[in-house]
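Below is how a single chain appears once it has passed through the pipeline. First comes the sequence as given, then the structure the pipeline wrote out for it. We keep one example in the README because the format questions we get most often are answered faster by looking than by reading.
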Amino acid sequence: MNLDNETIANFADRLQETYEEQSILTDLANVVEYTEEDHQELDYVQIGNRIWLPFNYITTTIEVTNAQQLLRAVTEGEKRFLLEHLSEIPSDQLLALSESEGFSIASMRSAASQISNPDYAFVPNTERYNMQLREWEEMDRISYEGGEILDIGGEVKLRWVPEGWGYEDIYLVSRSGVDVVQKQFEDAPTPKGMEIQPRYHSLSAGQRLMLYFGEVEEVDKESIERRVDFLFRVVISKPKFAPQSICKIAPPE
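Resulting structure:
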């Protein structure tokens, strides 16, 4: 790759900084650092993306907003991964279950009484719930210091779920009851099926966000534009849920 080491390092540093700022994984779960002795037998998944990255994206000083957009596959992927596992728990195995008649203070309080110290709620970003949110704003039930905080006798942070994800239920969660193990770069095997350049491994040393640079190609024979095979990812375990850590609030039929 005909790019100087400083240019590559600056690009990687911006991505690492952006991930640490934008990832909410540690807000959603108790994240434990991987050790081979304690966590080798767990099941792990990688969350990220592999793209052909234009050289000019690396050589130009990458703006914060561009770095955020690039890493959405990871930061939104972490959130979606956890939500998928919550939604896959059979109803008769949920650690707590509350059937509500709508998104109300009463239903949220009822749900909160069933779990230990709820911290946040996954709420589908649909018209039904947005209308209720506006009513709560008028009742001074919502504050916006550090995000949308709902007062239900205790503070619960609202984590909005994109409507396109297809979820209808609310999940009230106690962060301390959700355990996830996360690997650093050195703990994860090198991805297969990619001609990775080992000289850039140092850019991810000791980091949770893993960056891999592969082969370089020209876009076409007539163009001087080039791009690099680029993979970025995190590696985390499937979550484990402690008793009294989750409450599902189902909408009325």
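The longest strand covers residues 226-237.

See the next section for the split statistics.
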